[in-house]
Specification:
heterodimer; A: alpha+beta; Alpha-Beta Plaits; two-stranded antiparallel sheet; two-stranded antiparallel ribbon; 4 helices; 8 strands; globular; B: 583 residues; alpha+beta; Aldehyde Ferredoxin Oxidoreductase,  A, domain 1; Aldehyde Ferredoxin Oxidoreductase Protein, subunit A, domain 3; 6-stranded mixed beta sheet; binds iron/sulfur cluster
Chain lengths: 142, 583
């Protein structure tokens, strides 16, 4: 049985724009102090007085990012979304261009796409419960 | 600079439009923030010239922990105050500290005067001067929108700018930071205006690799949990600082009607609870703080018949509920938001502006000033006339408004007679929303920024009140200095003062160690004393003398939680303060 995990942002109207989620992802996944190196972005639509939106990987059932990857570094994940195998990535940026939601960013220094692993660390550090990890049990997975 | 043995300073000269970077090892001992900004300021200040002379510097600085640890969110601005004519320092949150960090800078120094209005985009690899002529007299929100779309700097950026008040060099003008924060006090906005500088857009993408991940992540989580799970900071999030309105009112510590009273019969109408229930729209945080203490009220205004409404979000806090609420006899939350919104748009310091309007209302009532001067009948409770008067302070149509916009100290000094006896200023700066007792008065008078946050006199009063019978003037003076030294540690690091209980000095030292800075609580205190000493020297050179700022008789006529404050007692505190400072 495989457990499928998907990051979700069901309650962004509660967001206080603190960036704790981005800082946590940067800190714990990328050993980085800056919000510029993390796998999600909290954005404002129309400035700080507008709406706050989470730019996250939406675990597409048909992930174009994986389809276009020439090396198989970005591969289709069972149940939706894609998984990045860093060692196979050649930094061609095709996945970044192909992401249907324009979510995926490329880190120029690491030469890697900043792909979400749906680990849930950001969820733990959100003080307002804006984010969640959806889990699904899938019978017969590998 | 994080993990380096220098402070990276960007110098911008507006006259030549030349810039330079310097990596200064000598500044490290001043920590950052307030320590570094005041040190650089002291080197460059043109002591013999006017505060608004083009040669004067304005300095911004962040600290070593800025956005590296939770709630280290403030940036500090040092300048020559056109309002008090001495050292000016103001602190602001928002996104600014994070943007300066991502731009790979520790301090920004601006000198000179541009030949025509400009705003500047600061990126790690580029500094761009933009023509700001068309924006020069625009309101704060509109100019912010233009700068946001024109500067071509997406993502993690901060925009600071002045409004009409700053452009007109009104000495009580502030600099607005992002949408809801400010370098409000002491006239930083006029300094920008005098330099033909509309604002700054700061952005960057610099990353710093974490050096000691295991220790760092552990300590980060510990501090984060302490801030979010122990209740230490819950009050700032729930109702925010307006939570203080009702308790202060109950103990006779809420100034109202220009401190003719220290309680307010409509306090319940404009309490934190009333704001939350009636208009609270959302809460927002400074970047890197999980608390969310910035409370935004939704202001809805009828502008025409036929149900024509306009609406916008306005941030409110205790200070403004006092200055543009109880001080002016405003009886409802919408009225307060309306006045805040206007001061925001004009780019005025909302505390000074409200206190000035309260003074004008009483002075007009008394016949000390005339309607031909004020143009509109400023009167307690009359919102529409206050709205017009705010506009006049920002865009002075006559000498009266030009004078009153310089603050109540300057205004009453010029007017002479007894006019200062009901002018609510301390050390040249309009008071904040506490009338807790003698420590607050002397704390404001002596504090480096003349801010209630310098030494928390209000809190000293409340602690000492428990044992008022044995209260000695010497103890008060000692506590004021002691607290100012401690707070100087936080303002140099630059940790938000609301988080001081989360960051006891031991925790601060552990955090510094993880980012490879060695310090002990004692060493921090001694650096902090040195920083304070430097600032005291600056203001001495600028001619500051406590004796030039006699306390208004109003402070001794209205009951405080201590009953009537005795003038002899405050005199005694001042005597002790002077002696202690000499040492
Ligand atoms: S990276 Fe983009 S395309 Fe790929 S799964 Fe996530 S959202 Fe879909
Ligand atoms: S789920 Fe994990 S990888 Fe994805 S954004 Fe959150 S912290 Fe980053
Ligand atoms: S941690 Fe939560 S509240 Fe803070 S920015 Fe992220 S989603 Fe918004």
């Amino acid at each position: 049985m495989t457990v499928i995990r998907k990051l979700n942002a069901p309650a962004m109207s509660k967001c206080i724009l603190c960036y704790s989620c981005m800082l946590a992802c940067a800190r714990l996944n990328y050993r980085a102090h800056s919000v510029t190196r993390c796998a999600l972005k909290i954005k404002t639509a129309g400035g700080i007085s507008g709406k706050y939106v989470a730019d996250i990987c939406r675990s597409c059932i048909d992930p174009t990012c994986a389809h276009v990857c020439p090396t198989g570094a970005m591969s289709v994940k069972e149940g939706g979304g894609a998984r990045l195998t860093k060692s196979k990535c050649i930094g061609c940026r095709k996945c970044v261009e192909a992401c249907k939601l324009n979510y995926l960013d490329f880190d120029e220094e690491l030469k890697l796409p900043l792909m979400c692993t749906h680990c849930g660390i950001c969820v733990k550090f959100c003080p307002h419960g804006c984010l969640e990890i959806l889990t699904e049990n899938k019978e017969g997975g590998q | 600079m994080l993990y380096q043995n220098y402070i990276r300073v960007l110098y911008i000269d507006l006259f030549t439009k030349k810039i330079k970077f310097e990596n200064r090892e000598d500044l490290c001992e001043y920590i950052g923030g307030s320590g570094v900004a005041s040190k650089i300021f002291s080197e460059l200040a043109d002591y013999g010239s006017e505060p608004l002379a083009p040669s004067q510097p304005i300095v911004f600085a962040i600290g070593p922990m800025s956005t590296i640890f939770p709630i280290c969110t403030k940036a500090v601005c040092s300048f020559f105050s056109p309002q008090t004519g001495e050292y000016g320092e103001s602190h602001a949150g928002g996104r600014l500290a994070m943007a300066i960090r991502l731009a790979n800078i520790d301090a920004i120094v601006i000198t000179g005067r541009a030949q025509s209005p400009v705003y500047i985009t600061i990126k790690p690899d580029d500094i761009i001067f933009h023509d700001a002529e068309p924006l020069w007299r625009l309101g704060v929100s509109e100019s912010g929108q233009y700068m946001r779309s024109m500067a071509g700097a997406p993502g993690n950026r901060s925009i600071i700018r002045i409004g009409p008040a700053g452009a007109n060099c009104v000495p009580t003008a502030g600099i607005n930071v992002d949408t809801y924060r400010h370098f409000g006090r002491l006239g930083a906005g006029a300094v920008f205006g005098s330099k033909n500088l509309k604002g700054l857009v700061i952005c960057g993408e610099k990353d710093f690799a974490i050096k000691n991940p295991a220790e760092y992540n552990k300590l980060y989580s510990e501090i984060y949990d302490k801030a979010t799970k122990t209740g230490l900071m819950a009050k700032y999030h729930e109702l925010g600082t307006p939570k203080n309105v009702l308790p202060l009112n109950k103990i006779n510590a809420l100034p109202s009607y220009n401190l003719k009273q220290s309680n307010y019969e409509y306090a319940a109408n404009i309490s934190g609870e009333a704001f939350a229930e009636e208009v609270l729209h959302r809460k927002v945080s400074c970047s890197g703080c999980p608390i969310g203490c910035i409370h935004i009220g939704w202001l809805r205004k009828l502008f025409d018949a036929g149900y024509e409404y306009e609406s916008c979000g306005v941030s409110y806090d205790h200070e403004l509920v006092f200055s543009l609420g109880s001080q002016l006899g405003i009886k409802n939350t919408t009225g307060v938001l309306n006045l805040i919104n206007e001061t925001e748009e004009m780019g005025l310091d909302a505390i000074s502006c409200g206190v000035i309007l309260g003074y004008m209302s009483e002075a007009l009532e008394k016949g000390d000033i005339t309607l031909s001067e004020t143009i509109v009948e400023v009167k307690f409770g009359e919102i529409d006339n206050y709205l017009k008067a705010i506009n006049y302070i920002a865009n002075p149509p006559n000498d009266f408004y030009r004078d009153i916009g310089r603050g109540l100290y300057n205004f009453t000094a010029r007017k002479g007679g007894d006019s200062y006896q009901y002018a609510l200023q301390l050390g040249g700066l309009e008071i904040s929303g506490y009338f807790t007792g003698p420590a607050h008065l002397i704390g404001g008078l002596t504090g480096i920024r003349h801010s209630h946050l310098d030494n928390a006199g209000y809190s000293i009063d409340q602690k000492l009140l428990k044992d008022a019978s044995t209260l000695s003037a010497k103890t008060v003076a000692e506590k004021i200095i002691e607290e100012e030294v401690i707070r100087s540690v936080y303002t140099s690091l630059v940790i938000c003062l609301f988080a001081r209980e989360v960051y006891d000095l031991e925790t601060v030292c552990r955090a510094l160690k993880v980012i490879e800075i060695n310090a002990s609580p004692d060493s921090l205190k001694s650096v902090s004393s040195k920083i304070l000493k430097n600032k005291l020297e600056i203001r001495k050179k600028m001619g500051f003398c406590i004796d030039n700022f006699p306390l208004a008789s109003r402070y001794f006529e209205t009951p405080s939680p201590y009953g009537l404050i005795k003038k002899e007692f405050t005199d005694e505190i001042i005597t002790h303060y002077k002696k202690l400072i000499e040492q």
